[in-house]
Amino acid sequence: MWEDIQAAIPLGFILSFMIGPVFFVLLETSAIKGFRAALVFDLGVIIADILFITIAYFSSYQLLENLSNQPGLYVFGGVILLVYGITIFFKHGSRNSSKIPIKSKRSDYLGLIVKGFLLNFINIGVLVFWLGVIIIVGPSLDNEPSRIRVFFTTMILSYFITDLFKILLAKQLKKKLTGTRIRLIKKGIGIILIVCGIVLIIKGFLPNDRFNIESRIENISY
């Protein structure tokens, strides 16, 4: 069991630094809205990951094959990210305000959890990633449910703890934020979401053999 934990910790750390829309929105939320808001947002992201892992565990090979035969799912998720990114980019804040936005109230926390969950959930590539991990890691754990639970629990905890440090570091930027810089950050986040959406849409139109998550994870493993 200890070997499984040791193997999961670095994977969780690497997962936390995978560049994607969630990565940048988490840092933005921490820098602008504070530690608690970012923590709540991250919980939503993790809930989506847990759901993906559960789906991947109980469907693995069959679902991976279905996803490869239904590129429309990538296009659907990509369009949502693209529209969301465009909305953020062109959304104008108050130009007369130079103050940092007020911290999120408790009533806003539910919205942040939903935002984190949906932003992660609509990225079908995340589900493909977890499917690939299940397929590669499962046999090495002898497909034992107890060992798999320990492995993925450790991986998620490692991911979450790393995110806490990222949130704390991003929070230090708050003192240097002005109204203009906040608008620039939001536009930057919008551009990142637009790019991620376009990548997903392109993935939906590429031949299946151009993106084989299982083979890529195998290459990383070795």
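That was protein one. Protein two is written in the same sequence-then-structure order:
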Amino acid sequence: MDTISNSAEAVAEQAAGRLARQITAEREARGWTQATLAGRAGVSKAAVSRIERGEMSPTAVTLLRLAGAFDLTLAGLLLRAEGGAGEREHERLSRAAQQPGWRDPDTGYARRQLFAAPTHPLEAVQVTLPAGASVTLPASSYAHIQQLVWVQSGELRLTERRAPDLTWDLAAGDCLGFGAPCDVTFENPAEQPCTYAVFVARR
């Protein structure tokens, strides 16, 4: 068990290192300072510095804000970090073994990229949200995309943070199309994990 655990931790550390290097590369390619990126993303300069040095794993919200600042979807940023964007440019098949995953260190929100390709307008993601967990994703992450959420198992409470808030209670099989961009809270109110798929169309 220790060997398996240590191996999983090593893989996670390597993935975090690749992501940190990609964020630095994206920033430097644009000629931005860390302060510039922080201002565009709406996060602190200290957080950007710690993330780039690998001292802090970004949460889902922070990662979405950074991706948005680069004018990338989260999938685009993660795929670049995995080194797969160029390799997959002409591929239409996404093998299960090649689908990259990522886990939010704060909430346990786990994301698996089912499909994404630079030449295709659609993306597909599978998310598992632990029991009782919630995450609020910023409006900026929806600025250039449209989404559908399809609940595969468990219960999902989705709240669109507008005036007034609009809350949807979704069960397995339910599918919801997003409205205009706004902050959105994904919450699992049940005692079991919730798994849902997100289908993304780039505008």
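The CA atoms of residues 149 and 198 lie 5 Å apart. Keep this in mind for the problem set.
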